């Protein structure tokens, strides 16, 4: 399954750190957050279905008329500061082989 993921991290957290690099290193962004003193206290996720844009359907390998699921994820640190917003998109066929 192909997924498209976009992650936004506030400059107040990532600025001047290795989080500005495309790949933050072993353990991913959450290990990096911990190393910078940001402990995850809670997360929110919302799932939405929609029809994809043409170029998105092409990148996902979705057949015409196949909807896309978006998972919108926000994590907060111990001070209730949003640490990241991630949007993961994948095709959602009604049947898989």
Notes on the structure:
This is UbiC transcription regulator-associated domain-containing protein. GO terms for molecular function: DNA binding. Pfam families: UTRA. It comes from Streptomyces flaveus. Residues 2-89 form the UbiC transcription regulator-associated domain. With 97 residues, the chain is an alpha+beta fold. It has a domain at 3-10 and 40-91: Chorismate lyase (3-Layer(aba) Sandwich). The protein contains 3 helices and 4 strands; from the N terminus they run βααβαββ. The protein has a 4-stranded antiparallel beta sheet. A hairpin with a 4-residue loop joins strand 3 and strand 4. The chain is elongated. The termini are close together. The mean pLDDT is 89.
């Amino acid at each position: 399954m192909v997924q498209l993921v976009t992650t936004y991290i506030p400059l107040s957290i990532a600025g001047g750190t290795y989080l500005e690099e495309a790949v933050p290193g072993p353990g991913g962004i959450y290990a990096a957050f911990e190393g910078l003193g940001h402990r995850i206290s809670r997360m929110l996720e919302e799932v939405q279905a929609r029809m994809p844009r043409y170029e998105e359907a092409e990148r996902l390998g979705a057949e015409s008329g196949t909807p896309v699921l978006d998972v919108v994820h926000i994590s907060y640190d111990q001070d209730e500061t949003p640490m990241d917003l991630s949007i993961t998109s994948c095709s959602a066929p009604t049947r898989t082989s």
